[in-house]
Amino acid sequence: MLALALLFSASAIAQNPNPIRVNQVGYGCNDSKTAAIEEVGWARQYTLTNDATGKRVWKGSAVRTAESPWSGKKRAIIDFSTITTPGTYTLSNGKDRQKIVIVEHPYTELSKAAIKAFYLQRSGEDILEQYAGEYARKGGHPDTLVMIHPSAASDSRPAGSLIKSPGGWYDAGDYNKYIVNSAYSIGIMLSAYEMSPTSFNNLNLNIPESDNTTPDLLDEIAVNLRWMMTMQDPADGGVYHKLTTPNFEGFIAPTACRQQRYVVMKSTAATLDFAATMAKAYRIYSRFAEYSTMADSALSMAKKAYAWADKNDRVFYRQEVMNRDFDPDVQTGTYGDMRVNDEFFWAEVELFLSTGEQYYVEDLADDYQSLRFSNPSWANVMGLGFFSAAAALKSGQLPYADQIQRLMTPMMTGLADQYMQSLSTSCFDSPCGNSPRDFGWGCNGEQVCGRGIVLLYAYELTHDTKYLDAAKKVADYLLGRNATGYCFVTGFGTFSPMHPHHRLSASDDVDAPLPGFLVGGPNPGQQDKANTPAYPSNHPDESYLDHTESYASNEIAINWNAALVGFIGWLSGY
Predict the structure, then answer these.
(1) Of 436, 458, 462, 530, which is least surrounded by CB within 10 A?
(2) Does residue 143 have an active-site annotation?
(3) 555 catalytic, yes or no?
(4) pLDDT tens digit string along 189-225?
């Protein structure tokens, strides 16, 4: 009851009252620098003052105005890109003020924090003060006595028997661990690493593994890879869909949780996602001495998983059917997927690139006309296969490179061009937030960061700077130049979420949430509104609530943070 009372005592803040909307983390010295001014705060002239000298360095008026297609609100877009000197400034609009940071490398600390968030999200180990400061905590969920659910029973592992499946990351605001989402999360981060290793190699995250010779990003990902390896049935190669309690835990600390944890049925989607992730990990981790043995095991397990999926290609995770047939019922996240052609594609691309065996791509040669590139998500991972092919093209290690590039480039740049179509009329000078389709569950991850990643691939494929410039405007949107005025990453900017739907943040004794986490973002579905204060608006771009019970708009999740790491980490390399 105390935890519930604490939840509802948290104030729900609708949006930033400051009408000046900017990138609150910082602008690169030579990058575009624009701000959006809400109608209520319009002035004829705007000024920028250097905080160190007190001198005005810029004065200007709006370069254009834009009207929201939903609310009718008008915004003024101002451009102060001519200011390139690093420093802290104040942008003034009548009586309103907003801090502006101009710096050569604006995203280094944000990139480090977004990765470090995964350390804070680790399951089954103590999070130590020397690495986590005030966010140190005792570990919970050792997962050394995980029960085989009846749906997962086999001759060698009957129902009720116990296995060990320790480590890894908690999936989201809850305490369970899911193969499908883990695979996507690792896939999107390793894809960015393959394209731009120099963006990540020298980041010291101050995690327990920081003193070895492997980049810290890869060290952190290895924590979850090792957990995933425990989820494969060694007898047949199939992979359990998730490790879970029957019901979500309350908003309590991990050490206070008491429900039995289970692995539930194997599924085709989870097994293929596992195969793809392990094959990709082999290519990257085999370069580092600390992980050579793990890498070899990963490739062997990937082959075995693919063989199981090839024989069991329609084993779909339907939780309601499972609950009808087996006890106990499971009510946690489903990550169900009734189409696995994209999982097959991703797994086959990764296995081919890691083994060179034509066997894995024989079917693709006959069916390449059906391939469609899209912004990847946990439910549609075909884009991750495209990303790996693009990395192989860049490194010169892909057979039939010319033909594949002719196929891939129009698809990937075509989607990037679609994202950029509304830039000139955007209320926030961004490729994001200009259509109702841009908003929904987890839009900040798969829609916003995902768009940024697609734009960076388009830039690498064409070397046309318009795509890189547009990607930087995606970052501006994510970090404060949006309808809510929030910088959507905890602990960053001048106005960021304080009450994410996150059990670790809600159950500790620290007022501020764990830093470096991306919240889901505006969601006009408002599926949680029965449990929250009223949303500030039904307009798609304003349908966000900074409240702990707002799981529809304010939860955190490893897939969204992985997209943040992939996007911001890669972008910081430019």
Answers:
(1) 530
(2) no
(3) yes
(4) 999 999 999 999 999 999 999 999 999 999 999 999 9
In this predicted structure, the answer to whether residue 10 has a pLDDT above a threshold of 70 is no
Cα separation, 29 vs 574, whole angstroms: 12
Active site residue 501: yes
**Burial (0-12, 13-18, 19+ Cβ within 10 Å), 201:** middle
> Which residues lie closer than 8 Å to 516 by C-beta, 6 or more apart?
110, 113, 114, 115, 116, 117, 120, 489, 490, 491, 492, 561
546 flagged as catalytic: yes
Classify burial at 260, counting beta carbons within 10 Å of its beta carbon; exposed 0-12, middle 13-18, buried 19 or more.
exposed
* Structure confidence at residue 404 (pLDDT): 77
pLDDT in tens, 58-83: 999 999 999 998 999 999 999 999 99
- As given in the structure block, the two tokens for residue 488 are 């959507």
**Token duo for residue 39:** 């109608």
Rounded Cα–Cα distance for residues 191 and 350 (Å): 11
Residue with tokens 């075509």: 414
**87: which residues sit within 8 A by CB, 6+ positions away?**
50, 51, 52, 101, 102
CA 229/CA 301 separation, integer angstroms? 8
Residue 406: pLDDT over 90: no
| Cα 148 from Cα 150, distance rounded (Å) | 6
Out of 31, 236, 446, 546, the active site residue is 546
Which one from 194, 476, 542, 555 is the annotated catalytic residue? 555
387 close to 186: Cβ distance less than 8 angstroms: no
Average per-residue pLDDT for the chain: 94
Looking at CATH, the fold of the domain delimited by 121-399 is given as Glycosyltransferase (1.50.10)
Could you tell me where the beta strands, DSSP code E, fall in 201-335? 242-244, 262-263
Lowest mean pLDDT among 111-115, 162-166, 221-225, 337-341: 337-341
Q: Is the dihedral of CA 362, 363, 369, 372 positive or negative?
A: negative
Q: In the sheet where 162-163 sits, what is the strand order?
A: 162-163, 146-148, 262-263, 242-244, 177-178
* Burial (Cβ within 10 Å: 0-12, 13-18, ≥19) of residue 166: middle
pLDDT digits (tens, 9 = 90+) for 294-340: 999 999 999 999 999 999 999 999 999 999 999 999 999 999 999 99
Q: Which helix (H) or strand (E) holds 27?
A: strand 27-28
Please identify which of the residues 149, 501, 502, 539 carries the catalytic annotation: 501
Catalytic residue among 31, 174, 194, 219: 174
How do residues 443-477 score in pLDDT, each as one tens digit? 999 999 999 999 999 999 999 999 999 999 999 99
Pairing status of strand 27-28 against strand 96-103: parallel
Residue for token pair 């254009």: 64
Q: Which residues contact 416 (CB under 8 A, 6 or more apart)?
A: 454, 455, 457, 458, 467, 470
CA dihedral over 475, 480, 483, 489, signed as positive or negative = positive
Residue 336 region by backbone torsions, left for phi larger than 0, else alpha for psi between -120 and 50, else beta: beta
CA nearest to 243, candidates 261, 227, 255, 256 = 261
Residue appearing with tokens 């905080």: 51
User: 471, 459 in Cβ contact below 8 A?
Assistant: yes
